[in-house]
Design a protein that fits this description.
Layout lengths: L1 H10 L1 E2 L5 E2 L10 H15 L6 E5 L4 H11 L3 E4 L11 E7 L6 E7 L8 E9 L3 H12 L3 E11 L4 H7 L4 E9 L6 E2 L6
Parallel strand pairs: 3-4, 3-7, 7-8, 8-9
Antiparallel strand pairs: 1-2, 5-6, 9-10
This protein binds guanosine-5'-monophosphate.
The site of guanosine-5'-monophosphate has 20 residues, from strand 2, strand 7 and helix 4.
Function: Converts the preformed base xanthine, a product of nucleic acid breakdown, to xanthosine 5'-monophosphate (XMP), so it can be reused for RNA or DNA synthesis.
Protein name: Xanthine phosphoribosyltransferase
Enzyme class: transferase
Length: 194
């Protein structure tokens, strides 16, 4: 997705050889018109799949997911990282090792929002080692929902998550795939544009 790649090149910062900072438009300040385009791209890539719900993880997955949900006409559920006082019964839970915070978070969704009649699109901001996506898959599996695919805004293709998920048979669509972040330079995987 060219406008996303352009934005990453102009505003993204390679903090190290493995971590990309994009808090100008995705992880802190949010660019709504870019999110709108991202939502449209997810809609185009998954529109034949009969999706009934989008499942994401708070907080950075919410903005692109809401735009996709608006365009696809489906609700968006964000898995919560902390159990709130008002959210106690009927919870589906999983655990995710946070790549950026280097800690284990418990994540949960209320079972009432996702069930066996649902066809779920999982969306997240980044794909690195695949732990966040696996936790969301685990939540959807516990609900008995079908997983239509996984939509990722930025995949770091030099890490193992994308290939592991594709080898397991999941339909993963990443809007920008980074080949490497060496020497502070951001390079994308060369591939045919959609
Ligand atoms: P994974 O679980 O695939 O190892 O990592 C994905 C999660 O970690 C995403 O939900 C994202 O929030 C965070 N993450 C992983 N790598 C990066 C990165 O390079 N930059 C930022 N901003 N977040 C990342």
């Amino acid at each position: 997705m060219d406008i996303l790649k352009e934005k990453i090149l102009t505003e993204g910062i390679a903090l190290s050889e493995t971590v990309l900072k994009v808090d100008n438009f995705l992880n802190h300040q949010v660019d709504p018109s870019l999110m709108h385009e991202i939502g449209r791209e997810f809609q185009n890539r998954f529109e034949e799949k009969g999706i009934t719900k989008i499942l994401t993880l708070e907080s950075s997955g919410i903005a692109p997911s809401v735009m996709a949900g608006l365009l696809m006409g489906v609700p968006v559920i964000f898995a919560r990282k902390r159990q709130s006082l008002t959210l106690t019964d009927g919870l589906l839970t999983s655990e995710v090792y946070s790549y950026t915070k280097q800690e284990i978070n418990k994540v949960c969704v209320a079972h009432k929002f996702i069930g066996e009649d649902d066809t779920v699109l999982i969306i997240d901001d980044f794909l690195a080692n695949g732990k966040a996506a696996e936790a969301l898959i685990h939540l959807a599996d516990q609900a008995g929902a079908e997983i239509a695919g996984i939509g990722i805004v930025i995949e770091k293709a030099f890490q193992e998550g994308g290939s592991a998920l594709r080898e397991k048979g999941y339909h993963v669509e990443s809007l920008a795939r980074i080949a490497n972040l060496e020497a502070g330079k951001i390079e994308f995987v060369k591939e045919k544009e959609h």
